[in-house]
Amino acid sequence: MRTALIVVDVQNDFCEGGSLAVTGGAATAGAISEFIEDHHPDYHAIVATQDWHVDPGSHFSETPDYVDSWPVHCVADTDGAEPHAEFETDRIEAWFRKGEFEAAYSGFEGVLAPETSTPLGAFEEESADDDGFANTEESAEDEARDASADGQAQGLDDWLQERGIEAVDIVGIATDHCVRATAQDAVDARYETRVLADLTAAVSPQNLEPVLEALEDAGVEVVRD
């Protein structure tokens, strides 16, 4: 089965020292990097998402409720929106940015970012044959240009379908928000979906178990080591 790894929002503002820091974010970034280094041959594609806010309206608030509104975070083209230093991005084939002008939690709401503005992988020489893994011949920038020519930016679901992806593993930040939403949308899009819970970090770890149970009830396999 052709499987992709989706790395959700491992960004500076969601790690210690950021404006919306999640406890354990930096450690999760490092653990994801180690996992990718050890397991990248298991995947036919590896992609990442970014919160990328320009003016998301009521998603930002000076008095956030941490449910529907949040402190300013991951503003486009700022350091807070960049991948955390512990997240090694060399094997990321494409980035999907979400939330420019409204709240967007799921990676499936994101659109393909131009290659020139993202830290894409440096392992293109490992591009696979018909049954192999890793990068494809067409660059993310070329794909974005093609999508623009069609008048519509390419979304994550379309990108995965073009590569024959049937299953996804999901890791990243935060378990109880963007990871959860991405996993739910993956199931709804009929991907076999796993969340690798040990490679995620939660905003509210004390309330995490009900979130994971709800994902399981929705058809997500939650992998706990």
Kindly report the spatial arrangement of strands forming the biggest sheet. Answer: 4-3-2-1-5-6-7
Low-confidence stretches: 124-145
Helix run count: 5
Main structural class: alpha/beta
Number of strands: 7
Q: Order of helices and strands, N to C?
A: EHEEEHHEHEHE
The description of the largest β-sheet is: 7 strands, mixed
Helix content: 10-25%
What is the CA-CA span between the terminal residues?
22 Å
What is the alpha-carbon Rg in Å?
A: 16 Å
Q: Please, what is the average pLDDT? A: 88
Percentage beta strand: 15-25%
Shape: globular
Structure in words:
With about 220 residues, the protein is an alpha/beta fold. The protein has helices spanning about 25-40, 140-150, 155-160, 175-190, 210-215; strands spanning about 5-10, 45-50, 95-100, 110, 165-175, 190-200, 220-225. The chain has a 7-stranded mixed beta sheet. Helix 5 links the parallel strand 6 (about 190-200) and strand 7 (about 220-225). Helix 4 (about 175-190) packs parallel to helix 5 (about 210-215). It starts with a strand and ends with a strand. Residues about 125-145 have low confidence and may be disordered.
